[in-house]
Design goal:
mainly alpha; 96 residues; 3 helices
Length: 96
């Protein structure tokens, strides 16, 4: 008996769902066209945003590589330059 009630309940729910679906108005061609246009505009916006993000990522990578290169280069204030002068033969050194 319990199973019979469940089956009847499911059938009633199914019929109610079909009735609700039949009551829903179909979209007009104008509404469909409007939705298609909105979708196309959304896709274009997505492409533009992806391009902006790619440019930002490239700029960040370039800045990072330039920073790493600057860190690995000796600075003007380092002693490496002055110490290399002491290694040069005296005839190549600058005279005051």
């Amino acid at each position: 008996m319990k199973r019979l009630r469940e089956v009847v309940s499911l059938r009633v729910d199914q019929e109610a769902g079909l009735e609700r679906a039949a009551e829903m108005p179909a979209l007009s061609a104008l509404e469909v066209d409007s939705l298609k246009q909105q979708l196309e505009e959304s896709e274009k916006m997505t492409e533009k945003m992806e391009e902006v993000l790619r440019k930002r990522d490239r700029a960040e990578m370039l800045a990072k590589s330039e920073k790493e290169a600057a860190v690995s280069r000796p600075r003007n204030g380092d002693n490496t330059k002055s110490s290399s002068l002491t290694i040069l033969p005296s005839r190549l050194r600058r005279r005051p």
